[in-house]
């Protein structure tokens, strides 16, 4: 069955354009014109991927609230912000709330489709790759590749798809530096340096919520990041 993509967009013309683009690629599309409609339609029956605008109707940050709520309900749901707002504060806020990507509405159709395809490809790969090792253990860290779950000291750390694969890339070879390009390759996304940094900060914060003394991810300034071999 084709993947279902939800578009949460309050401008009918834009929503129709995105819908037409995605339907021509074979996706099923669900349009939600408001945060309330999205809650009514998505909370009990999640799509395969959600595309959110930040401002919806008279609510300038309704998309942020919706992202937070969707992420709490569905930790592994791929979420993309597609918005005209692209200052650093908005980007960081969106990523902190759990979005996998933050795109400006000026992005080309080809690039938008590439981002969507990359996120959905990871979902498909995980469901159709039994050859992958089921569980990876690195000290106090446990990665469950079937369920995309991460445990630290036996406690769950809720990561997005992008965050999961970044941690996987780092923890797979403890002590080895992973540069930004390698982390992008692991996440199967094209992200700028600031976005990579924001993801790493969010990952650290999530681990610190479980363990205030968490220090397993080290920064090699100007080079990249490593998972401490003794963590």
Summarize the structure.
This protein has 231 residues and is α/β, with parallel strands linked by helices. The protein folds into 2 domains: 4-127, Response regulator (Rossmann fold, 3-Layer(aba) Sandwich), CATH 3.40.50.2300; 135-227, Winged helix-like DNA-binding domain superfamily/Winged helix DNA-binding domain (Arc Repressor Mutant, subunit A, Orthogonal Bundle).
Task: Name the descriptors.
231 residues, alpha/beta, Rossmann fold, Arc Repressor Mutant, subunit A, 2 domains, five-stranded parallel sheet, four-stranded antiparallel sheet, 8 helices, globular
How is the topology of this model organized?
Elements: E1 4-8, H1 12-24, E2 28-32, H2 35-42, E3 49-52, H3 62-73, E4 79-83, H4 88-96, E5 101-104, H5 109-127, E6 135-138, E7 141-144, E8 149-152, E9 155-157, H6 161-172, E10 178-179, H7 180-187, H8 193-210, E11 217-220, E12 224-227
Parallel strand pairs: 1-2, 1-3, 3-4, 4-5
Antiparallel strand pairs: 6-7, 7-8, 8-9, 10-12, 11-12
Helix pairs in contact: 2-3, 4-8, 6-7, 6-8
What does this structure look like?
The protein is α/β, with parallel strands linked by helices. The chain folds into two domains: 4-127, Rossmann fold; 135-227, Winged helix-like DNA-binding domain superfamily/Winged helix DNA-binding domain (Arc Repressor Mutant, subunit A, Orthogonal Bundle), CATH 1.10.10.10. Helix content is 43%, strand content 21%. It contains eight helices and twelve strands. The strands form three sheets. A five-stranded parallel β-sheet has the order 2-1-3-4-5, sandwiched between helices. A hairpin with a 2-residue loop joins β6 (135-138) and β7 (141-144). α2 runs parallel beside α3 (62-73), α4 (88-96) runs parallel beside α8 and α6 packs across α8 (193-210). The chain is globular. The model has no long low-confidence stretch (mean pLDDT 88).
